[in-house]
Design brief:
single chain; 5 helices
């Protein structure tokens, strides 16, 4: 379990205060989520840190796969849940590597043991569930990073009273394509003093 304190639905930690700007984007389905990954990749470069948050089924893997494609990363991108960290190499000499980390099941000491700082300058680093954990370990309070939260309607409920018992596991077209959701993007530090172009 992460060392970050829960701050909202699905145990999502509250955003770090002090962002330079915040943008909320409506995403109709997983295609829109993928498009956001591709467009954001155009603004990223080696040394950039992206903190990615969202509950189960929010689209984190879809987003990261498209981000990787936009960066020119080779190979299949999957969730690093069981290995905690994966390095995906850029396909060509001009392409940056992608370091993909899942910090959900670790704490500050475990995160430091992953030695992500060793690859930070040469890679784009995406840390799922890294809020309040990755920032102090990798960039400090005066550093720069992007925070992206994918929010589904289910995760916006007001608490335990909204829980629903699911007994029908058949997939509908909406399940396959993904329901509408939104993304909240926040920029921190001098690198992200102004927002990137997020138009899809």
């Amino acid at each position: 379990m992460s060392g970050a304190a829960p701050g909202g639905a699905d145990g999502v930690p509250a955003p770090v205060p002090g962002e330079a700007w915040t943008r909320r984007l409506e995403l109709q389905d997983l295609d829109d989520t993928a498009a956001l990954g591709r467009v954001l990749a155009k603004s990223l470069r080696a040394g950039d840190l992206l903190i990615l948050t969202g509950g189960l089924g929010a689209g984190k893997t879809t987003f990261t796969q498209s981000l990787a494609a936009g960066l020119g990363v080779e190979g299949q991108i999957s969730s690093p849940t069981f290995v905690l960290s994966r390095i995906h190499r850029g396909a060509g000499p001009a392409d940056v590597d992608l370091v993909h980390v899942d910090a959900y099941r670790t704490d500050a000491a475990g995160f430091e043991d992953l030695d992500i700082a060793a690859t930070l300058r040469e890679s784009v680093t995406v840390v799922e569930w890294g809020r309040n954990l990755a920032e102090p370990a990798l960039v400090s309070e005066s550093g720069s990073w992007l925070d992206l939260e994918l929010v589904t309607p289910e995760s916006e409920g007001s608490g335990e009273g909204d829980a629903e018992i699911i007994t029908d596991f058949s997939e509908t077209e909406e399940d396959v394509r993904g329901a509408a959701r939104h993304a909240v993007v926040r920029g921190y530090g001098p690198r992200w003093s102004t927002p990137p172009d997020l138009r899809r």
